[in-house]
Amino acid sequence: MAKKAATSDTQANGLRALPSVAALLADPAIRAATSLSPAGLTELLQGIVGEERAALLGGRPSTRAEIRERVLAEVTRFERPRLLPVINATGVIIHTNLGRAPVSAETAAALASAAMGSVALEIDAETNQRGGRMREVSDLMRVLTGAEATLVVNNNAAAILLVLSAVAAGRSVILSRGEAVEIGGGFRIPDVLRQSGATLVEVGTTNRTYARDYAAAVDVGTAALLKVHPSNFKVMGFTHAATVEELAEIATTHGVPVIDDQGSGALLSTTPFGLRSEPTIGDSIRSGAAIVTASGDKLLGGPQAGLILGKRDLVERIAAHPLARAVRADKSCLAGIAQTLRHYADGTAVQRVPVWRMIAATPQEVRDRAERLCGQLSQRSRVLPVDSTVGGGALPGETLPSSALALETSQLDGDSADALARRLRTGRTPVFGRIDGDRVLLDLRTVLPEDDEALLAAVEAVLAPHASPQL
Ligand SMILES: *Cc1c(COP(=O)(O)O)cnc(C)c1O
């Protein structure tokens, strides 16, 4: 009994010592560290004080000074926006964790100006009648791929779910066992099929599936033949996959569509840049796919979006499905996709679209930039040959020869490569590189030339003697 009373006493003392929200609100250092309104700051402080009270009652009390330190740290962290631009020097062009494709300056401007004002999204300016919000993108895509109509949604995952829901709910979809894949982030094609209300009919084997396997499986319940690009892995050796052409022939005979989840949204051939051939959207349409789906922010190089292209009657049916409204693209996205497509339509994509600029940069150009930066760095660095990858689930296993600025940590006051990489990531202009033994590699292929000076300044700031870890 005596012991219990003593504990409660301690707790009561602790609770009395807990700083009040009002006292913290009045603390000049805390006020100086925040831009929050009094109401917002009160809300934040109530949360912290509440957690500290619970910790105290749970036997883990903090001192007043510790609580004040914590409040200052959280208030300061709150001031720092997280989604600020960083420099991608990882060597992965389409880096999912860094937000996938960067867009061109023109596309960024189109996104911003659509966002900031009103646009004639669904009004025909000539007639003042309601007009299709997909008109511009459809017109551009028809020129670029031959597709009769295009529908833009939030992302390709939404595109596939919508297409299958509209075309195949209550019926079956034939898919190769080699293409019953997981795309990433738990997005599994068999699960999406089930979610859409369609039944999966798997044919062939993991490594070999022939056109005749699909032909043998078609029956009256078949809604579509589905082809999925196995984006993020590559099966080597004894393999076979049926082509879109072969599937289209079978599909036509039975009056069902071929749906091709093409994935990367490539509108240009990758082979001129020394990469394996990646099917383009146009290839798929020309090969007879009735519907093609793709991402807007992989090899297309635009903002996040899902593209559904193909036969007009099918696209219209898909657009009329109730789910279409739930996943439709907004005015900014449409303006951004349209501007990105204009780079392809006027033939300047390789000069304008960042993803293609990075792919098209010659090894010599990249090395020259690395050498120049290396020469300007006050601290010791070297230029090393490295390999970049395309990333984003496009061309797995393929690499592009590149050059990296190698920052040798052994030369730099005993900093470990991990610590240096962390300081680069947390600097005023964050830089993401990759660690290779005791050095940090900054791959210049994934940095746009116009960002070279910013990269140089960011590295200088981190390497400078007495640079504070938190710039
Ligand atoms: C990337 C990808 C998806 C998912 O696209 P998101 O735009 O990320 O939703 C689906 N299918 C394939 C083949 C892909 O490569």
What's the gist of this structure?
The protein is α/β, with parallel strands linked by helices. The protein contains 20 helices and 14 strands. The chain has helices spanning 2-17, 21-26, 28-32, 38-57, 64-79, 105-116, 135-145, 156-168, 189-195, 211-217, 244-254, 281-286, 312-319, 322-326, 331-345, 349-352, 354-360, 363-376, 417-425, 452-463, and strands at 87-88, 92-94, 149-153, 172-176, 199-203, 222-228, 258-263, 291-295, 306-310, 381-391, 400-408, 431-432, 434-436, 439-443.
Give the tags:
globular; binds pyridoxal-5'-phosphate; Aspartate Aminotransferase, domain 2; 43% helix; alpha/beta; 7-stranded mixed β-sheet; Aspartate Aminotransferase, domain 1; 471 residues; 20 helices; 5-stranded mixed β-sheet; 3 domains; single chain
How would you describe this protein?
By secondary structure, the chain is of the alpha/beta class. It folds into three domains: 2-78; 87-94 and 355-463, Aspartate Aminotransferase, domain 1; 104-352, Aspartate Aminotransferase, domain 2 (3-Layer(aba) Sandwich). Helix content is 43%, strand content 15%. The protein has 20 helices and 14 strands. The strands form three sheets. Strands 3-9-8-7-6-4-5 form a seven-stranded mixed β-sheet, sandwiched between helices. A hairpin with a 2-residue loop joins β13 and β14 (439-443). The longest helix has 20 residues, at 38-57. The protein is globular, with a radius of gyration of 28 Å. The two termini are 54 Å apart. 41% of the residues are buried. The model has no long low-confidence stretch (mean pLDDT 92). The structure holds pyridoxal-5'-phosphate (PLP). The site of pyridoxal-5'-phosphate (PLP) has 14 residues, from α8 and β7.
